Amino acid sequence: MKLNGYTGDDLYKKPRLEMVETQLVKRGITDARVLEAMRLVPRHLFVEEAMRSTAYEDFPLPIGEKQTISQPYMVALMCERLGMKGDEKILEIGTGSGYETSVLGLLAGRVYSVERIAPLLFKARKVIESLGLHNVALKVGDGTIGWSDFAPFDAIIVSAGGPDVPAPLVEQLADGGRMIIPVGGETGQALRTVVKDANGVKSIEDTPCTFVKLVGRYGWGENGAN
Ligand code: SAH
pTM higher than 0.85 for the full model? Predict the structure, then answer.
Protein backbone atom coordinates (compact mmCIF):
# COMPACT_ATOMS: atom_id res chain seq x y z
CA MET A 1 0.00 0.00 0.00
CA LYS A 2 1.48 3.35 -0.96
CA LEU A 3 0.68 6.94 -1.88
CA ASN A 4 2.53 7.72 -5.10
CA GLY A 5 2.62 11.45 -4.50
CA TYR A 6 3.63 11.38 -0.84
CA THR A 7 6.56 10.03 1.15
CA GLY A 8 4.89 10.03 4.56
CA ASP A 9 7.90 11.70 6.16
CA ASP A 10 6.45 14.87 7.55
CA LEU A 11 6.25 16.83 10.77
CA TYR A 12 3.11 14.96 11.71
CA LYS A 13 4.31 11.41 11.28
CA LYS A 14 4.65 10.88 15.03
CA PRO A 15 1.16 12.18 15.99
CA ARG A 16 -0.27 10.19 13.06
CA LEU A 17 1.23 6.89 14.24
CA GLU A 18 0.17 7.70 17.80
CA MET A 19 -3.37 8.41 16.63
CA VAL A 20 -3.53 4.94 15.08
CA GLU A 21 -2.25 3.26 18.24
CA THR A 22 -4.19 5.17 20.89
CA GLN A 23 -7.45 5.98 19.10
CA LEU A 24 -7.83 2.99 16.77
CA VAL A 25 -5.88 -0.10 17.93
CA LYS A 26 -6.69 0.49 21.62
CA ARG A 27 -10.39 0.82 20.81
CA GLY A 28 -10.51 -2.43 18.91
CA ILE A 29 -9.90 -1.65 15.24
CA THR A 30 -8.09 -4.77 13.97
CA ASP A 31 -8.25 -4.65 10.15
CA ALA A 32 -4.54 -4.39 9.27
CA ARG A 33 -5.23 -2.70 5.93
CA VAL A 34 -7.38 0.01 7.54
CA LEU A 35 -4.65 0.68 10.11
CA GLU A 36 -1.99 0.80 7.40
CA ALA A 37 -4.00 3.23 5.27
CA MET A 38 -4.55 5.52 8.24
CA ARG A 39 -0.84 5.45 9.07
CA LEU A 40 -0.19 6.69 5.53
CA VAL A 41 -2.81 9.35 4.72
CA PRO A 42 -1.63 12.81 5.91
CA ARG A 43 -4.81 13.96 7.68
CA HIS A 44 -3.32 17.41 8.44
CA LEU A 45 -3.43 18.31 4.74
CA PHE A 46 -7.24 18.05 4.77
CA VAL A 47 -7.76 20.82 7.34
CA GLU A 48 -6.99 24.55 7.30
CA GLU A 49 -3.35 25.36 7.97
CA ALA A 50 -4.16 27.01 11.30
CA MET A 51 -5.69 23.76 12.53
CA ARG A 52 -3.00 21.34 11.45
CA SER A 53 -1.61 20.83 14.92
CA THR A 54 -4.97 19.41 16.05
CA ALA A 55 -5.60 17.28 12.95
CA TYR A 56 -4.67 14.03 14.71
CA GLU A 57 -6.74 14.63 17.84
CA ASP A 58 -9.70 12.48 18.81
CA PHE A 59 -12.53 14.62 17.39
CA PRO A 60 -14.08 15.97 14.19
CA LEU A 61 -12.83 19.40 13.01
CA PRO A 62 -14.51 22.18 11.01
CA ILE A 63 -13.63 22.25 7.30
CA GLY A 64 -15.75 25.27 6.27
CA GLU A 65 -19.32 25.53 4.91
CA LYS A 66 -20.53 24.35 8.38
CA GLN A 67 -19.19 20.86 7.69
CA THR A 68 -16.63 18.70 9.50
CA ILE A 69 -13.89 16.17 8.82
CA SER A 70 -14.98 13.00 10.64
CA GLN A 71 -13.25 11.81 13.82
CA PRO A 72 -10.43 9.35 12.94
CA TYR A 73 -12.07 6.50 14.91
CA MET A 74 -15.35 6.91 13.00
CA VAL A 75 -13.51 6.74 9.65
CA ALA A 76 -11.67 3.60 10.78
CA LEU A 77 -14.80 1.92 12.15
CA MET A 78 -16.85 2.57 9.00
CA CYS A 79 -14.04 1.40 6.72
CA GLU A 80 -13.47 -1.74 8.80
CA ARG A 81 -17.19 -2.59 8.69
CA LEU A 82 -17.08 -2.60 4.88
CA GLY A 83 -14.52 -5.44 5.01
CA MET A 84 -12.69 -4.40 1.84
CA LYS A 85 -10.03 -6.68 0.37
CA GLY A 86 -8.66 -4.35 -2.30
CA ASP A 87 -10.51 -4.68 -5.59
CA GLU A 88 -13.95 -3.35 -4.65
CA LYS A 89 -15.85 -0.54 -6.31
CA ILE A 90 -17.02 1.87 -3.62
CA LEU A 91 -19.52 4.73 -3.52
CA GLU A 92 -18.97 7.41 -0.88
CA ILE A 93 -21.58 10.06 -0.11
CA GLY A 94 -20.20 13.24 1.48
CA THR A 95 -16.63 13.78 0.23
CA GLY A 96 -16.19 16.72 2.63
CA SER A 97 -12.45 17.28 3.08
CA GLY A 98 -11.59 14.19 1.03
CA TYR A 99 -9.79 12.52 3.95
CA GLU A 100 -11.96 9.41 4.12
CA THR A 101 -12.07 9.34 0.31
CA SER A 102 -8.26 9.03 0.32
CA VAL A 103 -8.29 6.27 2.92
CA LEU A 104 -10.84 4.43 0.76
CA GLY A 105 -8.65 5.03 -2.30
CA LEU A 106 -5.93 2.97 -0.61
CA LEU A 107 -8.33 0.26 0.57
CA ALA A 108 -10.43 -0.34 -2.55
CA GLY A 109 -10.01 -0.74 -6.29
CA ARG A 110 -12.03 2.26 -7.31
CA VAL A 111 -13.84 5.00 -5.37
CA TYR A 112 -16.74 7.19 -6.57
CA SER A 113 -17.47 10.06 -4.20
CA VAL A 114 -20.29 12.63 -4.32
CA GLU A 115 -20.36 15.97 -2.43
CA ARG A 116 -23.19 18.51 -2.59
CA ILE A 117 -21.10 21.59 -1.73
CA ALA A 118 -18.91 22.45 -4.72
CA PRO A 119 -16.15 24.49 -2.98
CA LEU A 120 -15.50 21.59 -0.59
CA LEU A 121 -15.23 19.17 -3.48
CA PHE A 122 -12.77 21.39 -5.35
CA LYS A 123 -10.52 21.67 -2.30
CA ALA A 124 -10.73 17.91 -1.70
CA ARG A 125 -9.85 17.17 -5.32
CA LYS A 126 -6.62 19.20 -5.09
CA VAL A 127 -5.37 17.32 -2.04
CA ILE A 128 -6.41 13.89 -3.36
CA GLU A 129 -4.59 14.56 -6.66
CA SER A 130 -1.49 15.82 -4.87
CA LEU A 131 -1.27 12.47 -3.06
CA GLY A 132 -1.20 10.65 -6.39
CA LEU A 133 -4.46 8.78 -5.88
CA HIS A 134 -5.73 8.09 -9.37
CA ASN A 135 -8.50 5.59 -8.64
CA VAL A 136 -10.87 8.22 -7.23
CA ALA A 137 -13.69 9.88 -9.20
CA LEU A 138 -15.48 12.88 -7.68
CA LYS A 139 -18.62 14.79 -8.55
CA VAL A 140 -20.79 17.57 -7.20
CA GLY A 141 -24.39 16.52 -6.64
CA ASP A 142 -27.01 15.04 -4.35
CA GLY A 143 -25.56 11.74 -3.19
CA THR A 144 -28.89 10.49 -1.81
CA ILE A 145 -29.77 9.54 -5.40
CA GLY A 146 -26.47 7.65 -5.72
CA TRP A 147 -24.36 7.58 -8.90
CA SER A 148 -26.26 5.25 -11.20
CA ASP A 149 -23.75 5.45 -14.10
CA PHE A 150 -21.31 3.31 -12.12
CA ALA A 151 -23.72 1.09 -10.14
CA PRO A 152 -23.78 -1.55 -8.76
CA PHE A 153 -21.29 -0.87 -5.96
CA ASP A 154 -19.65 -3.51 -3.75
CA ALA A 155 -19.88 -1.12 -0.83
CA ILE A 156 -21.49 2.24 -0.04
CA ILE A 157 -20.36 4.53 2.77
CA VAL A 158 -22.43 7.55 3.77
CA SER A 159 -20.68 10.13 5.96
CA ALA A 160 -23.66 12.32 6.78
CA GLY A 161 -26.70 11.36 8.87
CA GLY A 162 -30.16 10.95 7.33
CA PRO A 163 -33.66 10.20 8.63
CA ASP A 164 -33.62 6.86 6.80
CA VAL A 165 -31.65 4.83 4.25
CA PRO A 166 -32.12 6.42 0.79
CA ALA A 167 -33.87 3.85 -1.45
CA PRO A 168 -31.68 4.56 -4.53
CA LEU A 169 -28.60 3.59 -2.52
CA VAL A 170 -30.10 0.21 -1.62
CA GLU A 171 -30.91 -0.28 -5.30
CA GLN A 172 -27.35 0.59 -6.36
CA LEU A 173 -25.79 -1.85 -3.90
CA ALA A 174 -24.48 -5.05 -5.54
CA ASP A 175 -25.69 -8.50 -4.49
CA GLY A 176 -23.40 -9.44 -1.63
CA GLY A 177 -22.63 -5.78 -1.03
CA ARG A 178 -22.85 -3.76 2.16
CA MET A 179 -23.60 -0.17 3.07
CA ILE A 180 -22.79 1.74 6.22
CA ILE A 181 -24.85 4.82 7.06
CA PRO A 182 -25.70 6.89 10.15
CA VAL A 183 -29.49 6.93 10.56
CA GLY A 184 -31.55 8.83 13.10
CA GLY A 185 -32.49 12.35 14.16
CA GLU A 186 -30.85 15.64 13.29
CA THR A 187 -28.69 15.71 16.40
CA GLY A 188 -27.81 12.05 16.93
CA GLN A 189 -27.80 8.84 14.94
CA ALA A 190 -26.76 5.18 15.08
CA LEU A 191 -24.52 3.48 12.55
CA ARG A 192 -26.56 1.16 10.40
CA THR A 193 -25.03 -1.65 8.34
CA VAL A 194 -27.18 -2.76 5.41
CA VAL A 195 -26.38 -6.09 3.77
CA LYS A 196 -27.89 -7.16 0.46
CA ASP A 197 -27.88 -10.74 -0.80
CA ALA A 198 -30.00 -13.23 -2.71
CA ASN A 199 -32.37 -13.47 0.27
CA GLY A 200 -33.02 -9.75 0.40
CA VAL A 201 -31.86 -6.78 2.46
CA LYS A 202 -31.00 -6.98 6.16
CA SER A 203 -29.82 -4.27 8.50
CA ILE A 204 -28.38 -3.95 11.95
CA GLU A 205 -27.92 -0.77 13.92
CA ASP A 206 -25.51 -0.23 16.79
CA THR A 207 -22.90 2.42 17.56
CA PRO A 208 -24.37 5.83 18.47
CA CYS A 209 -22.77 8.66 16.50
CA THR A 210 -23.18 12.31 15.54
CA PHE A 211 -22.79 13.31 11.91
CA VAL A 212 -23.69 16.46 10.00
CA LYS A 213 -26.99 16.31 8.15
CA LEU A 214 -27.48 14.34 4.95
CA VAL A 215 -29.31 16.95 2.90
CA GLY A 216 -31.06 15.93 -0.30
CA ARG A 217 -34.00 14.36 -2.04
CA TYR A 218 -33.88 11.23 0.14
CA GLY A 219 -32.36 12.98 3.17
CA TRP A 220 -33.23 16.08 5.21
CA GLY A 221 -34.73 19.08 3.40
CA GLU A 222 -32.58 22.11 2.56
CA ASN A 223 -34.01 24.16 5.47
CA GLY A 224 -34.05 21.44 8.05
CA ALA A 225 -37.55 20.23 7.14
CA ASN A 226 -37.90 16.69 5.89
N1 SAH B 1 -15.83 11.94 5.36
C2 SAH B 1 -15.83 13.36 5.26
C3 SAH B 1 -17.02 13.85 6.05
C4 SAH B 1 -17.50 15.16 5.66
S5 SAH B 1 -18.91 15.73 6.52
C6 SAH B 1 -14.54 13.90 5.84
O7 SAH B 1 -13.94 13.18 6.63
O8 SAH B 1 -14.13 15.01 5.51
C9 SAH B 1 -20.21 15.19 5.48
C10 SAH B 1 -20.29 15.79 4.13
O11 SAH B 1 -21.49 15.31 3.52
C12 SAH B 1 -20.39 17.31 4.09
O13 SAH B 1 -19.34 17.83 3.33
C14 SAH B 1 -21.75 17.57 3.43
O15 SAH B 1 -21.75 18.70 2.57
C16 SAH B 1 -21.95 16.29 2.65
N17 SAH B 1 -23.34 15.98 2.27
C18 SAH B 1 -24.48 16.15 2.99
N19 SAH B 1 -25.54 15.74 2.30
C20 SAH B 1 -25.07 15.30 1.08
C21 SAH B 1 -25.69 14.77 -0.09
N22 SAH B 1 -27.01 14.58 -0.18
N23 SAH B 1 -24.90 14.44 -1.13
C24 SAH B 1 -23.56 14.62 -1.08
N25 SAH B 1 -22.93 15.14 -0.01
C26 SAH B 1 -23.67 15.47 1.06
Answer: yes
